[in-house]
Specification:
single chain, about 130 residues, alpha+beta, three-stranded antiparallel sheet, two-stranded antiparallel sheet, 4 helices, about 15% strand, elongated
């Protein structure tokens, strides 16, 4: 995906200040409607980060995260060799039919939101 900064989000004038923006992003992440790896409370205003929305990949160029509905998630999906269960969600989100490297699915981390669970590549980013 194209990286975005908090400043880019503020420019839209949907939020009057950075604190309100960060609070809303944290709230939305907890529902699973959006996903980002960074600790948003510590994120500098001009630091670029990957931002994902549950409904569409948007202008995403990378394929580092994808959601599944929380009511579809099963704890065994975290185990290795889960490609046959996760691939349909990945393909649906990224609108692709092409097979993907199975190693991608063996090293995914997990974030559980109330409505969506996100599988993502790599650990939480540290920008401190």
């Amino acid at each position: 995906m194209k990286s975005i900064t908090l400043m880019d989000m503020l420019v839209t004038k949907s939020f009057s200040n950075i604190l309100k923006l960060k609070c809303e992003l944290i709230k939305q992440k907890n529902t699973g409607m959006v996903f980002y790896k960074e600790d948003i409370s510590k994120l500098p205003i001009d630091y670029p980060f990957e931002f994902y929305f549950y409904l569409t990949k948007g202008t995403i160029l990378y394929q580092n995260a994808f959601p599944i509905p929380a009511n579809h998630y099963k704890p065994w999906m975290r185990k290795n060799n889960n490609i046959q269960h996760l691939l349909p969600y990945f393909q649906s989100y990224y609108e692709t039919e092409s097979p993907f490297d199975s190693l991608y699915f063996e090293s995914l981390s997990l974030f559980k939101g109330r409505k969506f669970v996100w599988f993502y590549k790599g650990g939480i980013s540290d920008v401190s």
